[in-house]
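Chapter summary example.
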Amino acid sequence: MRTLAPVFVGSGKEIGKKEYIFLNKSKVGIPDIQKLYAEMRKRGLGSHFEDYLLSYSWVSLTDWLKRQNIRMNEIEPIINYKLDCGDAVLERGGNRLQVMECIKDPYGKPYIPGSSLKGMFRTIFLGADMLRSAKKYGREKEIFQQNMEEKKKRTYYLKKEMESLEGVAFRTLQREKTKPRDAVNDILQGFVVSDSDPLSVDDLVLCQKIDWHTNGIERKIPILRECIKPNITVRFNITVNTQICSITKEKILGAVKDFIGSYNRNFEDAFSEMGKPGEKDVFLGGGCGFVSKTVIYPLLGKEKGLETAVKIFGKTDVPRQHKHFRDKEYGASPHMLKCTKYQGRNYQMGLCRIEKMECVE
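The structure predicted for these 361 residues follows.
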C-alpha cells in the first residue's frame, strides 16, 4: 500500500511544548529528555531544569534553552529524531501547541498496527456487503432507524444496532453450542492482518488538522500530528484461513472499489474543489472523518444517510457551534472534509492506495 496523503496512527501520547525544540524555521527536534536532563546537570543547570519542567510556565523548551545561552547545535547529539514542520502552525495566540505522537515500535520506528489495518478492512467489507446485498439487512436497518430516537450515553448510542449489522455480515459460522451472534462465529477470525514493516522516523512529518468546508473555505484547527508522509510504501501480510473465511484478493479489491464508490457518490461529490479518491483507494488511521469510518451511507443511501448523520451528531452531543444542523443546506454531513497540508498542497487525511498484492499459497 502507498500513502497518498499524510497518515496518522496515534500512540495516545502527546509531545508537549517542553518536549520539542525548534532547530530552524522548518524543522523541530524531539530530544531524549533523560539525556537532556543529564546534559543540564553537567552544566550545573539540573535543579533549574527540574523547576522548569515541573512549573506551569508557558515558556517553550526552545526559549528556555536560549535563556540559558545554549545554542541549538549544542543540543544536536541528544535529538532522537527531527520532523519537517514547514506547513504546520506551531503557535496559537502566542502559545506553542502540543503534538499528537505517532505510534512507534520498541526501537522507536513508526509502523501501522495490524489492528488498524484490519479495522479499516472490516468497515470496507461491511459497507460493500450492504451495497451488494441490501435486502439481507432489511430487518436490522429498520431497527437501526427506529432506535435512533432513543436517549443513551454517547458512548453506547447505536452500539448494539451496529453490532447487529456486523452480525449479519460476519457472524455466520454457526459453531456448536453458541448463539448466532456470538463473537466466536465471526468469519474474520480467519482474516489475520499483521503489523506493517517498520518505517523510518525520516518518513514522518508534522501536520496540522484542517477542516475543508463544502464552500471551499479551509479552517486551521490547533491540533498537530506526527504523520507518515505521502508516497511512503507500507508493507504488511494478510493470512486467510480458507476453512472459515472465503475472502480473496479479488474480493478485497472489489469491496474497496464499492466502498470508495459509495464514499464519492454520497459524500465527496459535495466538495467540488477536492479531487476524488480512486477505485483502489482507502482511508487509514485517525483524523479521516466520520464517513470513512462508518457505514451509514452504504446502509441508507445519500438522502437518508445525510439526515441520519445529522441526527447522530445531535444525539452524541457534538457542540452546536459545529453547525451540523445546517448539513442538509450544505449538501453533506458532515459538511467538513478532514484535510491537512504538505509542501503547500492540500490532502485528505489518511488517503492510501492498494498498489500491489502478491498471493502465496
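To summarize the output: The mean pLDDT is 91.
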